[in-house]
Write a structure and sequence with these properties.
heterodimer; A: mainly beta; six-stranded mixed β-sheet; five-stranded antiparallel β-sheet; B: mainly beta; seven-stranded mixed β-sheet; four-stranded antiparallel β-sheet; 11 strands; 0% helix; 50% strand
């Protein structure tokens, strides 16, 4: 089983839709969970950072962590064409190393 | 807004040649990282660096790789003898504090080994 699994998509939605992006993981030592957005040929840009279980909201973005199920989600409300990018989940057990998912390609159609 | 910068944006080299990838982390950050992303694959951790020492490295980071902070602003990744499989995007990242804190990534250097 891969340490972090993420559906690569592509996920195509109409403008204004609610988008749900997900990752599962196998390493129960992971405590820190992040979502990055990556535009083509650019570096990852941090969107959300959460510790342990629960929800965190920032504008149109909501991150959820369910450690009992080893499942994390990112919701994007009122999606915009500018949200079209690859979304990467990343996790850490507390050290310096981030373990990334493969990334989900999101396309928001206007 | 402060950002991590990397040079060059694209480096082409012949197999067996040495390359040095350069990064300027955010000025008050203390922890520095290199990651790589082979085309179509995951972003992978290579190494973390703090206080002029490697603090953690992955199995990818073998003897062909080295890192250095030659002055107060630059952070470099050297690949001594490049292989075809070293072709990838190399990302530098930095954080103010250690651990999995908010790592800010640079735009990357695309390395092509011919």
């Amino acid at each position: 089983q891969k340490e972090v699994e993420q559906d690569p998509g592509p996920l195509s939605v109409p403008e204004g839709a609610i988008v749900s992006l997900n990752c599962t993981y196998s390493n129960s030592a992971f405590q820190y969970f992040m979502w990055y957005r990556q535009y083509s040929r650019k570096g990852p840009e941090l969107l959300m950072y959460t510790y342990s279980s629960g929800n965190k909201e920032d504008g149109r973005f909501t991150a959820q962590v369910d450690k009992s199920s080893k499942y994390i989600s990112l919701f994007i409300r009122d999606s915009q064409p500018s949200d079209s990018a690859t979304y990467l989940c990343a996790m850490s057990a507390g050290g310096n190393k981030l373990v990334f998912g493969a990334g989900t390609i999101l396309r928001v159609k206007s | 807004e402060p950002e991590v910068t990397q040079t060059p944006s694209h480096q082409v080299t012949q197999m067996g040649q040495e390359v040095i990838l350069r990064c300027v982390p955010i000025s008050n950050h203390l922890y520095f990282y290199w990651y790589r992303q082979i085309l179509g694959q995951k972003v992978e951790f290579l190494v973390s660096f703090y206080n002029n020492e490697i603090s953690e490295k992955s199995e990818i980071f073998d003897d062909q790789f080295s890192v250095e902070r030659p002055d107060g602003s630059n952070f470099t990744l050297k690949i001594r003898s490049t292989k075809l499989e070293d072709s990838a995007m190399y990302f530098c990242a930095s954080t103010l504090a250690g651990g999995p804190g908010e790592q800010f990534f640079g735009p990357g250097t695309r390395l092509t080994v011919l």
